Amino acid sequence: MPSIRAANDDDLTTVADLLVQLYEDECPGIFSGSRDASLRLIRSLVRENESVVRDGLVLDSPDGIIAYGAVSTSTFPRRRPSMAMVGAQALSFLGVRAAAEFCWAYSRLQNLVCAPLPPMTAQVHSLVVHPRARGNGYGELLFRTMEDTARQGGHHDALLYVLAGNPARRLYARLGYQVVPTPTLPGVPALLRYPGIAMRKPFREALAMAGSVPDIAGTA
C-alpha cells in the first residue's frame, strides 16, 4: 500500500515532472515546445520555489512517487513567482514563441491561484496523480490527508481552485466544497486570470471549538 509523507528536496525532480503532467491536463496549450524542454523548465522553476517542498505531500509506492499535493496557509501562502524570472527561464528552455505562450498561460494561472488567503484558511492545491496510478483512489486518499493536515494546523476551512472544465469539481462538491466568490489579486482584472472558480469547505469541528459554525448553504 502506498504511504504518504512530507516532500523533501530529493523529491523535486519527480514532483516537477508530476506538475508538468498537471499543467498539461488542466491548462491545454501551456506547453508548445518539446516535452523535454518543458520538463527542464518546470524542474528549474520548482527549485526556485521553496513552498513546493515546504507545503508538499507525496504518495510513495514501491515504484516511486505516484502523487503530489500541497497545503498552503495565510501565514505561509503560495508564493507568486517573479514573471521576469519565469520569462527569462522560459526563454532559455523553450525559445521565443513557446516561452511567450507559456508565460501568458502561467501568469494567468498564478493570478488566479495565488490570491491572498483569509485568516485561518488553508489552500489545498496542486493535486496530481501519475497516469499509471489513476483509477485506484489515490488522489482522494492524498486529498483527504491534505485536509487533515489543514485541520491539524488549526485552520477553520479549506479553499481550492478548480479550473474551467475540470471534472474534479464534482469530486470536491461530494467532499463538501461549495462554490464561493473567487478571491482576487488587487489590481488584476478578470481578463488576466485563468478561468476558474473557488470552492470552500468549513471544518465544522474547528469552528465549533472557536464558537462559530456559519451556515454557508447557498453560497455562490
UniProtKB/TrEMBL annotation:
GO molecular function terms listed in the Swiss-Prot or TrEMBL record: acyltransferase activity, transferring groups other than amino-acyl groups
Any single Pfam family the record assigns to this protein: Acetyltransf_1
PROSITE patterns: GNAT
Record Gene3D superfamilies: 3.40.630.30
N-acetyltransferase domain span: 2-204
Protein keywords: Acyltransferase, Transferase
UniProt signal peptide: none
Protein name, UniProt field: GCN5-related N-acetyltransferase
